[in-house]
Specification:
The structure is a homodimer of 712-residue chains. The first copy, chain A, has 24 helices and 30 strands. Chain A is α/β, with parallel strands linked by helices and 712 residues long. In chain A, the strands form 6 sheets. Chain A has a 7-stranded mixed β-sheet, sandwiched between helices. In chain A, strands 5, 6, 7, 8, 9 and 10 form a 6-stranded antiparallel β-sheet that branches. In chain A, strand 20 (402-409), helix 13 and strand 21 (429-434) form a beta-alpha-beta unit. Mean pLDDT of chain A is 92; it is low at 498-509.
């Protein structure tokens, strides 16, 4: 552990608190930096011009002069900074100029004095900072200084605490990273010094969470160090608060009862067609759920041949889940009764809570739920599905194609799109869950359950915000090591984010923060709804590649070019084919075909050419994934191609060789059937597009890379 | 016209030619700049240190010293530049240092002397240049100087000649454009001076096309001017050559005969199943072509009930088109005969030409074609379709869904994908044309024909390269004013471009050049194959919007957020809803729904709410386009939604109100049928995706904007 002088910081913060200030002065900032080993220029505070001259002469010219005032945060704007002061006369003159400027800028500003600062040698200006994000809590930021970060927004974020490796990844993670590596013969900046500075800032805000913002801007990065030239630190007691978090055990205990209930009650069950309480009953029954179903309705004795109870308290046995199909205003009372019954999960279908502005009612039900140790799903949801239990606790229609994909959505409309797509594609699903207003259960709880759920192989989530981004990031980082997590974050863009707030009352965070932190958590971020659905469908079917060497084998040179474009777009590496392998490929393809990569077997080749070259790619250990481009011809019709591909891939699977194979099919309408046949056999194939199959392979690779599953 | 001193440039170039040099010295560069009114710093050439001191004292300190040597182009690298020289002693010392450095860098370098240059005040470094692109010929480039252009490649291109307006669009067209507008209180750079400098460089290379490269780097852009600090000019006589171009009249005369032939001959027609010459015959006949069909085959008397001829010369009447279905080696002789017969177009299906490395054979047939005034389509193609004439001159299958979309592809595989997609989507097509090796007929010829073809409403082209990019850009600029031109440029990326060269022998140009120039030509660039096909299908169905005000009306808030994201991604503007319109919307939606934009009518609303709000959007003149988000409910099932939308849209169409309406449908599988129904009625609708409908609307807008069809 680094030896920090925490007491020095505490003293500064005590003074700031005593003064009722929310920011540190520059000298205070320097004390904090010194205490945490953050290098700053030699400097001193002068209260008159003689003192300023004396200080400047001590530290040596040139110097910088800066206003020191608790009331002036943007010094440059206030005319409060002069650089390149070369002699004593200039210092004296500068002192007077700055003081005058400050008085014009803010006549009421309390002026503490003028800071005289050593002027540093040339280097690259960078920004290092920490801030308190309302989704993720403490995060650190890094970017190039000056107009680059301001105009091009070339900046990157990580959750604090940030270790050295992460700090280095930040330095490499900006678009202009090359500048710090030294361009035009310039010496590279000292990456270690910058990384060290980032971790010190991260440690500082970790130790003192009331520091809401630490802004080192600029930091001068030279070949031999990194010095914080200007320091701005803000204090906010509320920045230290953290949301309530359940333990993993608590989450699993509740979620297991909710997802695999032995008994479900329907609060507001109804015999009347068209009522939500009727749809839920029907779906539970016709969906094939085999546990107990208890209709709760004071006015009925029987609903759908099930004995009805006036109140949940009347039910003889234990109840794990209560699905609410009653108006919002009746929810608090019913929730109390549900809690007293010892129910694990309240599935709140009704709307009329936070999403309509009724935050009080939502807060009230959360209070009741906590008190009775009931977890709430919703409110304002369509319900949820868990196919291994044949559970369709929803007012939509049942879904029964079992499989390994678990999906969740924050919006009902997106939930319906998930259901329709799944049914249309016959996608094997383990669960579809609506989280709606997320008054309680959120994506963390779902991730934790699905992590331990053997029926689930991949988790795909549509979300508009995260209640507790930090917890999500940490959970996703853990879960994604074993199962791919796909996230569609809506409200990505400024206009999108605006719509998000009007919809859920949730302020969407800066998208770059989401983007960096989701990536850091090993999440596959989907750019759109259809991408999320296609990744969910395809990624679990593909075996995990063992390395980065992708080979394109194509009958159509034109597809080869487009597939290559798609590889670059999706961060895939076209293998540089070794000479011996190239020779082997050439043995099977016509002399005017192109070996290399793409392997262009040319159009009009018989099935054997496809078969032989694909077999070569599967057999060669240096090849890790195959992308096939098919061109419809009379010699090799679509279904002949599809069947030979399945045959050769299965032959190698039998010998324990599992490589991801995707295919793009160009041809007349028969290619649609061929693509479906391939998909059913684990080869992710699409007609009329070179982009989609490569995007799914790219998603698989992004996950495998972050999960550390690729060799080398 | 600006008054340039062309003779001064001519004198310099004569000297360069006499010396056999391929570059200008710095003093020569300055003469050229002076002649074209390009501002450069005060400077002079010194051959000894005394002379250098004298020059420096004349122009005033500080000065810059630079090596002058025809053998040293990269001066900084050679240690040949010293800046900030402050007095006479430093000048003398600097002179010796630079000379010594240069001798170390290149002991054989001829050293002309040292250039002494006035050192300019602070400003933003930019780059202005002109180069000779092998696709587009003379192009001008603009970017920010230093690491920004080197590391971030933030640069933009235009075809030369470039007028003032285009030059200004370049200054605004870089990512970091804001920097020149003045950030952090800096004064803005003089945009007019930069634009002026760009046009002068453009004029210079226009007047002297043998200047293969003009590089002003850096140009110092200050609030009051733009001065070229360093000038590098390269000369290459070949840079002045331009490709052969047919006149518009020649193109139209030939293309009209080719696309609407009265008689077609099939060279190598065959009665034998499986032969290309048989497939072509069958497709001509069964496709319903009503002109004359002449099988040419020396060994047959009749093929498919048509009298066969031994040679095309034996055919009694005129022949407009000859489709070749014979091996490559027989093509030259047959082409001669075809030429002698006066055929307008030779459709060369056979492969075995440039694409297999046989460039000589390809050159030979082009020579024969030119001699006989035959235009060649291909070689190495699947043929072509023109549905208004029921013409399927191809070995694929006939296509008969008539409509306004004309498509072309450079690759046979992509052609098959076009055919399959079209058939699957029942897309109305006017033509599908394979251009293959483009030995002669290329996209220009097709564009020119389709421009005048009343059957064609939109042109979509897959291309890997352009033979004559300048001519394409100019043609596309003209055509796209009246008809949308969609281009899928393959080989976009480095890896993609590599595949392109191995496929067609065509070197794909720098993609940024393509991107800028295609945009400048009003072309809608499609990012991928599927996008090109969806744009082709959807864009002609949508009416042209009258302005930028897009309104989202959605039943699912979640879709609204994603649709907003998609709007930003596609450069669409969400209308800021005026208060009175907001009030009108609110009259129809529940109190907890969100007006604003998206208009969130909330789920569970009856058909009337959709109908009323959509009608409002159609009726209000300030709204220019609608994006609908549908959420499947029992209250408004998918087909009910689809029918009401068609009904209300058609009602307004009857009153002369035509606005583009697109829709995203979220729901169970019934939404697929609803989306198809909507599409058939001119509402571009998709299930399970929020991205695609907005992308198609975005494509329509991009075209309408460039074509100058939007008001305001």
């Amino acid at each position: 552990m680094v030896n920090y002088d925490r007491e020095a910081v505490q003293r500064v913060l005590a003074q700031v608190a005593a003064d009722g200030r929310d920011s540190l002065t520059a000298p205070e900032g320097k004390i904090v930096c010194d205490a945490y080993g953050i290098s700053t220029p030699d400097e001193g505070l002068a209260t008159d011009s003689e003192q300023a001259v004396e200080l400047a002469e001590r530290m040596g010219f040139p110097v910088v002069l800066k206003i020191v005032s608790p009331d002036i945060l943007h010094k440059t704007e206030a005319g409060g900074v002069l650089v390149g002061i070369k002699d004593a006369a200039q210092v004296a003159h500068g002192f007077r100029t700055i003081t005058a400027n400050a008085k014009i800028y803010n006549p009421n500003a309390k002026i503490v004095g003028i800071q005289v600062q050593q002027m540093l040698p040339a280097g690259q200006e960078v920004i290092v900072g920490a801030t308190t994000d309302q989704t993720f809590g403490k995060i650190v930021a890094f970017g190039l200084g000056g107009v680059l970060v301001e105009v091009l927004k070339d900046v990157t974020f990580r959750l604090a605490p940030t270790d050295r490796e992460q700090a280095l990844s930040m330095i490499d993670g900006i678009a202009a990273a090359e500048i710090l590596r030294g361009v035009r013969g310039a010496e590279p900046a000292d990456r270690d010094a910058i990384a060290d500075l980032i971790t010190r800032v991260s440690d500082l805000v970790g130790d003192f969470p009331q520091l809401s913002e630490v802004d080192l801007n600029p930091v001068l990065a030279t070949p031999t160090g990194a010095t914080a030239v200007d320091v701005r630190i803000l204090v906010d007691a509320e920045a230290a608060t953290e949301p309530y978090r359940f333990s993993q055990q608590e989450i699993l205990a509740a979620m297991n009862r909710i997802m695999k209930p032995a008994a479900v009650a329907v609060i507001g069950a109804s015999a009347e067609d068209g009522k939500i309480g009727n749809s839920v009953m029907k779906n539970l029954v016709s969906g094939g759920y085999r546990g107990e179903i208890y209709p709760i309705n004071p006015k009925a004795t029987e609903i759908l041949d099930r004995k009805a109870f006036a109140r949940i308290g009347d039910v003889p046995g234990d109840v794990d889940v209560a699905v609410f199909a009653i108006p919002a205003k009746f929810v608090p009372q019913a929730l109390k009764e549900v809690g007293e019954k010892g129910v694990a999960g309240a599935i709140l279908i009704p709307s009329g809570f936070g999403e309509t502005g009724n935050h009080e009612l939502q807060d009230e039900i959360v209070r009741i739920a906590r008190e009775h140790q009931v977890r709430i799903l919703g409110p304002n949801i369509y319900g949820y599905y868990y196919t291994p239990e044949h559970l369709s606790a929803t007012f939509c229609t049942p879904y029964d194609v079992q499989g390994g994909v678990a999906l969740s959505s924050q919006s009902g409309g997106i939930g319906m799109a998930i259901l329709g797509f799944s049914r249309s594609a016959q996608m094997g699903v383990s669960a579809i869950v609506g989280v709606g207003n997320k008054a309680d259960i959120d994506e963390d709880d779902l991730l934790t359950f699905f992590e331990h759920d053997d029926n689930t192989k991949l988790i795909a989530m549509h979300l508009e915000d995260l209640k507790d981004g930090r917890s999500f990031a940490e959970t996703a980082k853990r879960v994604s090591k074993s199962k791919p997590v796909v996230v569609l974050k809506a409200g990505r863009t400024a206009q999108g984010a605006k719509a998000a707030s009007s919809h859920t009352g949730a302020l969407a965070g800066n998208d770059k923060v989401y983007d960096d932190i989701l990536r850091q958590s090993g999440v596959i971020r989907a750019p759109g709804l259809n991408d999320m659905l296609e990744y969910a469908r395809g990624v679990p079917l593909l075996p995990t590649p063992k390395g980065e060497n992708v080979v394109i084998i194509t009958g159509a040179g034109g597809s080869g070019v487009l597939l290559s474009d798609a590889c670059v777009d999706n961060g895939l590496t076209l293998m540089s084919i070794p000479e011996d392998l190239d020779r082997s490929f050439r043995e099977y393809i016509p002399p005017f075909g192109a070996a290399g990569n793409p392997v262009d077997i040319t159009g009009g080749e018989p099935p054997s050419t496809y078969r032989n070259t694909i077999a070569l790619g599967l057999a060669d250990e240096r090849v890790h994934a195959l992308i096939l481009g098919y061109w419809h011809t009379i010699v090799t019709p679509p279904m002949v191609f599809a069947e030979l591909v399945v045959d050769v891939v299965e032959q190698y699977r039998e010998h324990g060789i599992h490589k991801p194979v995707v295919a793009s099919l160009s041809g007349d309408v028969e290619v649609e059937q061929a693509a479906e046949f391939l998909y059913r056999h684990g080869i992710v194939a699409y007609p009329y597009t070179t982009e989609k199959p490569v995007a799914v392979l790219g998603a698989k690779y992004r996950w495998a890379r972050e999960a550390g599953l690729l060799e080398g």
